[in-house]
Every structure is written in structure tokens, then in C-alpha cells.
Amino acid sequence: MSRDALIIGINHYKYLKLLDSPATDAEAIAQILEHQGGFTTINRLPASEDIDAENRSIVTVADSGKITLPELEDALVKLFNPTSQKPPEVALFYFSGHGLRKDQGGIQQGFLATTDSETKSYNNCLLLDWLRKLLRKSPVRQQIVWLDCCYSGELFNFAEADPGQRGQGLDRCFIAASRDFEAAIAPRTSDHSLFTEALLQALDYSQSAYGYIDNRQLVENLTQILKASSFPQQPVYGNSGERPIVLTGWMYATKPAFGEDFCPYKGLHYFDNKPEDALFFKGRENLIAELLAKVETKPFLAILGASGNGKSSVVRAGVLYELQKTGSCEIVNPFTPTANPLKALTNGLGPAEVLTFVQASAKARVILTIDQFEEVFSLCQDPQARDTFFNTLLDAVEQSAGKLCLIVVMRADFMDKCSNYPRLARYFQDHQHIVTRPTEAEIQQIIEAPAKQAGFLVEPRLVAEMVTDFKDSLGGLPLLEFALTTLWEKGKADRLLRYADYQVLGENKGINGILNNKATELYNRLLIEEDKKEENLSSEEKEKNEKAKKIAERIFLELIALGEGRVDTRRQVQKDDLLALSLPYPQSLIEETFNALAKAYLLVVDKPKGEPFAFVNIAHDALIEHWSLLQKWLDQSREDLKLQRQINEGAKAWKAGKKALLVGVDLARAEDYLGTHWKKVPLSEVGVEFVKSSQKERDRVLKEEKERQERELTAAKQLAEESEARRKEQSIANQRLTKILWVLSILFIMACIATGVALWYREEAKRQRDIGVKRFQGAKFEVTQEYSKALILYQEALELSKNTSDKEIQANGFSDSGRMYKFLNKLPEALKSFEQALDLRHEIGEPNGIKYDERQLLFTKAELGCNSSQLVARTVVGHIESFNCPTIAYELYRICKKPQEPLPTLAFADLLQGDILIVKEKCEQCKSDSQCVITLRVASQLIQVSSSNSPYMVTVGEEMPSVSSNVLQWLKLWKEKHEEPVMSVITR
After folding, report:
1. Which of 224, 479, 614, 879 is deepest in the core (most CB within 10 A)?
2. CATH among 3.40.50.300, 3.40.50.10860, 3.40.980.10, 3.40.50.620 for 284-435
3. Is the confidence at residue 865, as pLDDT, over 90?
4. pLDDT digit string (tens) for 236-256?
5. Please, what CATH class does the domain formed by 730-861 belong to?
6. Which of 822, 851, 825, 824 is nearest to 838 (CA)?
């Protein structure tokens, strides 16, 4: 962000008295702004250019130069309202020369005199009112005007200069040497006018306890200096705005190590083992020394600590950087295990085995560092690969004769996982160092030292407040660094980190508040340009940004490893897989959203050595723990995420030939999720294929089983027929013997039938018992509102009932399933189940069951009509405001009601005919239709409808006026099935 200045000092005038000091005064102001104020662009007028001994161009304010009115106006426009470039953050205008005043008809006007200004006609004079209007139109956020001339107070008509602009991010510092009716007296005690001499002294930051001078301090200093020097006139001061304007300071006189735009803080990222990071990594010197002492003598070191204690930064920018400087160690770039630790190890070292790599090194020692070692437990799902990884590392440690030092960095809450691997656990037990939270003194260093190194100042009050907030924050270092980075962005124009900005950015919630608020702000404005206001967005831009927010939510959820009994952690995902998420949006929008998240540093993209693909990670675990919006998404989607990942992982294993298809309850759960997964956490393409293939395989097995049973039945019938034929072909030679044999055969057959019937009854009883158990278990889940689990058990009971002859049991099974489908908002499936149940109940003539299923069918159709396609051709135009009498049943109204509407939606507009259809139960208290009055709210008007003012009031049985057929069917069904009649109203 630029700081620009226009400095003007006019000594020579064509028609006015010549002056001695303006050019000298102007150059002195330019010098202090250039060397102590951080002003990178200073336009001097009139200008004189010389070449110094080193052949460099030196520009100063010319003693005898000229400046015309067009030149002055053009320079002011370029400073305060440029059209060809981005306006500066800070713009300063200083003028030293003649000021003029015109008083005519009681109207006073002030002017700045140019070289050829005339006092009689006021030609070639810059009107101060014009300057005032220019400032009012200026987009520059911080405006500074200092006038050392007569009548300069005319500029400061603040009621005119600043109408309606307060509170809009504009800060101003206006100082004039004299009031609007005073001629400036220019006594001199040095090479400068008394006013400019005082101004130069007041800008001297070395006299400030803060190390800088802002516009408020400047006015205080200037007042004291002029008072002490008995300045003969009254200067005019004007400071406005909420944010102080830093004018000069220590930070502007210091040259930053890596340039003015280099941020010394790391946000949510770790400090790495490179000079630009190590230079700004402060406050952990004692810890680094302790770790270096252990690394020098030990072959293994486990560095443990809570998330957010700065383990990675200490190892990378501290230990490894210091070892790298010695030149005696070969430093292998740190890597993380990922889901495939053996591959990560190979990528880190190349094709050589660990021991071979160590022995081949020309250095005295090899330092191998594995960061985020907990990933080997949280991401790697292959126990054998994990075991091989551990043994490979420890074998190399033990066989390298001390040449290898293995450093592992891990969150302390994963220590219990190591106990399952005794060999690894012993190393962790004997060679560990716990990284604790920094002390208050160290935190102060972490805040102040990097800023000073980068040429920034930090307000003392801010340091004290952040140290206090850090003590109250768990895992505070990433939060602290993120807060400091945000404050640096806010204050880099002034090179100052302010307490006031900290309070505003965090909404008085400290470092936690800044991370939460900033992440939410970035999320809400993902695809919105930085300086564009919400009210200036087009509807297309708003819609696009809303879609991007949905995409971002899915990306973040995909990048989180769900903690089982511990906190959630980051989950590394291949970039191509992330961009191939099953989402109903254009691929270009998904990629644009991803790039916006990466640009905002909420995501980290890395392409490890040896890997053909890039991988993506959330910037830090602190974002998962402290961003409330992300926590909300997790709470809403946790169970869906678990199931989605189980199905997707199973699908990958199935594709690789390592897993069979889904069966039983697992398949039922997957089928249930497949029906609505696109609304929740969508399955991958392979996941969808996995579930559908499992369904096909189950259907194939069931079909084959049915065909087998049919074949066996046919064979049994054929055998019986053949047996009967043989019996008839028996010789009738011996009638008596044949008769006896026939009787014996009959008796034998009857005995067999009796035995078969007994067996059938036993099997039937067992089936009914199993059905009862399943329904009982399902009912328990239904009571606890675990409808998905209840549905699985009810469907298993239904499948068993299909093998029984009891159609009432089958009807109960369909009713149970329909009820669960309805609770789960699967209305088409519920409708089908209730229809099947109703068919069976009509077949067996069960009146109570018929009444129940008819009622359920009615409500399902009504709900399906309101929520789906039944009334798709109709638009809500109003709401029933009130009835003049109570009604008996409100089920239909509750079904039709939408969450955002305060009252039931019972009014629809027919797009084809322009009618308003109102459906209301006829209550028992109403003896005739004329007593019923319905108050309908349409827009902001209330309309009362009754038979007295509407010819379309009809009663049951009468022909209704023409409306769309689907609504007629719906009303007819209600009339036929409901105990109460219906009154319908059609009004134009």
C-alpha cells in the first residue's frame, strides 16, 4: 500500500511579493517524509533535478521555479483522485507560499497563489473550495493537508468538507498556519518559517515514547511548540476519523530484511528451515538449545506436545536450521507419513533403503525428521504397512552405529497408540522431549522481535493484551501467529500493529476471535473482490458466491479425519480426488473455489518429492478446533461422513479385489444412504457403483434361490405323478392283494402328509416368532426415534412375512416400513408401502387396519403434494390469517406448513387460471357455510372471504369450479377418506 505526497514551495511570484523560505521549507518536509515517514512517491513542485557524484538523479524543490494553476490542479487530482492507477492508502499535500482572500458581498473565498496569480482579478489562483470538493470526492482513505500560508483556515469548513462521510473509513489531518481571516506572519528563527520549523520538530519521532508520531500526537506536539515560541497567530487543526494516521516513525527509518511486503509472521503455517523463516522465528531459543544438545548425542528423539505448541516450527526453523548451518550434517527434508508411510519414506530418501542412504552419506551424521508422526495412526489404515514402517526405521537406527539421528514429531495425545508396538514404545519412553507452552517472556519475544526485524512497531498495550489472551487459550501459538498476521495486513500501510485493530478484528474475544472471524469473513466472500461491497454485487455474483460456499463446505469436510475418542485432525487428500468430488456444480467453479481457499491460506497444497500428484491439507488443526462454522458443519455431518467413508473405503477395497460386496445390514444401511447421499455427503462414483453392484448381487442370489425352490417343487410334483402312475399300473390279477396294498399306500401317504403338516406348522411358528422379535426390536428403535435402524428391522420382518400365509402379518410389515419411510421423509417409498398394506387389508377385510392405512396414505399424498410435484404448477400467494371458529383436526395444515411461514399455507394461485384456492376443514361448530369467514392475507392486505362475497363457496358434493386436475384429485381423496367434510373456496 503506497504513501504518496505532493510538496509545493513557491518563492517567486510574478505579481506578488517574493518570499525567502517556502522552497527550503518544502524540501525539509519532503526529506523528513522520505526518510522517516515511509513515503515512497514524493512529487516536488516546482522541481529542480541534479546529478550527484555517483551519477544518480537528485530532485529537490526549486528556489526559482514556477508553477501554474493547471499544473497545480493536475498534480492535486493525480494525488487525491487518480484515474489511471490505484489510489494511495495515504496522500499528503503540503503547501508553502502566498495565500489570498477575496471578500465580496459578504462572501469570503480563500485561494492558494500560483506563480502568476493576480490579486485584483484572482486569475490563476487555486480556489480552496475546489480543493475541499476534491477531497470530498477522493477515494484515498487517509488524507493529509498542511498549509503554511495566509488565510489557509478557509479550507477547514468541516461541515462542507465532510458531509455524510464520517464513519466510512476516512481519516483526515488538516493543519493551517492561520485562520480564514488571518494573514500569516512569517517570522524566522532559522532557515524555515516559524510554523514549518515547529512542524518539523513535531514530526521528530525520536522524541516520542511510542517510537512514532501520528496525527493526534502531531497536533499535541505542535500546540506545545508554538505556545512555547509565542507564535503570534492561531493555527487551525482538524483531525477526523477513527484510525490514527502514522506520519513518521522508527519503522520507516529501518530497512526491512526481506522487503517492506514480507510478513514476519506465519499465520497457520509452520516456520521452515530456510533463512527468511529462521530470521523471524523468535522466543524459543532455550528450547532449541535443549533439543540440539540431545540430537548431538542420541540416535532417536521423540518430540511430543499438545497441538498448537509449535513443535514443527521449533524443529524446522530451530533445530534443523542450526544443524544445517554447521555443515556437518546431512539434513533430509522433513516429511509426514500420510496414509502410505512406506511410500512417503521412499519419496523422502529416494530409491535407497534407509540404512544404505545413511551409510552412503559423506556427512558425519544424517538427520531424518518425520513430522506429524500421528498420521501413521490416524491416516494409515494398513496395520501391516504400519508395522513394517516402524521396523524399517528402528532397524536403521540400531544398525547405523550412531550416524543416523531419527527425529519424530508427534502430538502427545497419540502416545497411547505407541503402546501396541513394544519396540517403538521403548524408544519413545527412553528418548522423548515434551514441548511445553512458551512462557510470558517468550510470548512477548514471539510478538515483538519479528516485528522489529521487519521494521514494524507493536503498541505496548497490544503486547500486554495478547500475552494475557494467550494464557487463556489452549493450543494458542497458531492462533497467536494468525492474529499477528491479520494485524500485520491491517497495519502494513503504517508499519504499526495496533491494539484498537486487535479489539475490532477479534470482537473483544482475543486471538480465538480473530481466527474465527477472519476464517468466516474469507468464507463469506470467497469469490468477491476484496474492495467490492456486498450491496454492489449483482444477483449472478451473489448466486455464484453462495455456490462456492457450498463447495468450500464439502472440501473442508473431506479434509478432516474424524477423531474416535479424541479430537478431529487434518486429513491429507490428493488434489485431483478433491477436485473430482461429486457435486452438482461446474468443474470450473469447483476449481475456482479451491484456488480461492488456497489463496486465502486456509488450505495448503504440496507436491512431495517423488510423487506424481499434489496433495491438499487444511492449514492447521487450529482451524478445525477454533472455527465455529467448521465445527457446526462437522456436528451436522459427522454420522453421514462416517458412513460415506466406510462405503467409499469398502468400494476401493472391492475394486482392488480385497473385499466382497455388501450384504445384510451393511447393504441395508448403504441402500438407505444411497437414496439421499447427494443431499448430505455424496458418495464417490466408485462408492455408488459398489452399492449398486451389491444390490444386483443380492437380487441375483434371491432370484436364483427362488428359481431353485420352484425347480424342487416341480420335481416333487413330477415324482408324485409318476408314483401315482406306477400305482395304477399294478397288476389287478390279485384283486384282494391289490386292494390291501392300495389301502396301505393310502394310510402311508396320510401319515406322511400329517408329518409334513406338523413340520410346516413348526416352521410357520418359528417364522412368526422371528417376525415378532424383529418387530419388537424395530419398535424399540422407533421409540428412541432411530428410524433408519427401525426401518432395517421392519424390512427384515417383512421379508420373513412373505414366506407365511398370514396376510395380516404381511400388511403390518408394509405399514411398519411405510411409517419409517415417512419419518425419514422418503415419501414415494412410504406411499408405495401404504398402498401395498391397504391392498392386503382389503383382501382380508380388516376394517381397523384399512382405516389406519387409508389415513396414513392420505397424509403421505398430501405431504408429497405440498413438498413435491403435486402443486408444482401453483404458486403461494397468501396465507390463511385466521378463522372465525375453531377447527377439529389440524394434521393437514401442519403437513402443508413450511418452516419459514408463520401460518399454514392453504392458499395457492393457479398459474393457468389466476384463481386462489383455499382448502379448510368444515368444523362442527359451523351450522352453515355462511357462518364460516376466512381471513386471507395476500401481500400486505387482508381479504375476508365468505359465501356473502364469493360466488365460489361450495360445499361437499357440489361441482367445484375448474382447477388443475391434480388438486381436484387431492380434494376428492380428502373428502372420501377423512371423517370430517371439507369446505373449499375459490375466489378471484
Report:
1. 479
2. 3.40.50.300
3. no
4. 888 888 888 999 988 787 777
5. mainly alpha
6. 851
